[in-house]
Amino acid sequence: MNLALWIAAGLLAAVALAGGITKTFVPKEKLAAAHGGGWTGDVGVGFVKGLGVLELLAAAGLVLPAALGVAPFLVPVTAVCWVLLMIGAMITHGRLGEAGLVVLNLVYLAAAAFVAWGRFGPESFVG
Questions:
Q1: Transmembrane region positions (predicted)?
Q2: Which runs of consecutive H residues, i.e. helices, occur in 26-123?
Q3: What is the reported pTM?
């Protein structure tokens, strides 16, 4: 189970890193033209960049605390935050009729919920 939790956290961290880099460094106009990026046309650039920074922090928070042995309790806390972020993403993509992206966000949500459950519960770093 520990290995499955590390894999799930690592995959989520990779997704968060990619999304964070994209939202933080790619111009909003280019994001708006990309598949799944239409929502960026309705929000300010600061909001998009802010989400990007949050995703970069999530990428770090899903892996680094446990890998470095510094405040590993932050891993499940970050996973819960990712669940909340994915709920927002599902609502946003749902309103735009992007069912495929809603399903993808649901998969990410389920993986984050698994990490949160596992790291708060049976495979906690505290013990």
A1: 56-87, 99-120
A2: 28-33, 45-68, 74-95, 99-120
A3: 0.93
